[in-house]
Amino acid sequence: MSDVTVTQVARHFADYVNRVAYRRESFTLVRGKKPLAELRPLPAGKRLSELPALFASLPHLTPREATDFADDLSAAQGELAQAEVRDAWQS
């Protein structure tokens, strides 16, 4: 994150907004050597309020597919329960 004066940002506001939007750069706005604010990109992704619509847009499983999926999960859980636990850090 780069420090930039409030005056400099005010004079070149569109340039700084474009740098944030397109280059994903971040800036700390400073006045008199004192940090005041940050200018940074918003996190990418979906908002939580969009989650119900996202789920509704997904394809639905048929009853047969749902049963097969549940069977696959049970089989995988059974295999994991029987798997030997080993130290991942040992070579």
What does it look like?
The two termini are 39 Å apart. Strands 1-2-3 form a three-stranded mixed β-sheet. It has 91 residues and is α+β, with helices and mostly antiparallel strands. It folds into two domains: 2-39; 48-82. It is elongated. It has helices at residues 6-11, 13-23, 51-57, 63-82, and strands at 2-5, 27-31, 34-39. It contains four helices and three strands.
Number of helices: 4
Please trace the helix and strand order, writing H or E for each element: EHHEEHH
Structural class based on helices, strands and sheet pairing: alpha+beta
Tell me the fraction of residues in β-strands, as a range.
Answer: 15-25%
- How many domain units? 2
Could you give the order of strands across the largest sheet? 1-2-3
Q: Into which percent range does the helicity of residues fall? A: 40-55%
Write down the overall mean pLDDT: 93
* Sheet having the most strands: 3 strands, mixed
- Count every beta strand, where a strand is a DSSP E run of 2 or more residues: 3
Poorly predicted runs are none
For the termini, the CA-CA separation is 39 Å
Shape summary = elongated
Report the radius of gyration as a whole number of Å.
Answer: 25 Å
Question: Which characteristics define this entry?
Answer:
single chain; 91 residues; three-stranded mixed sheet; 3 strands
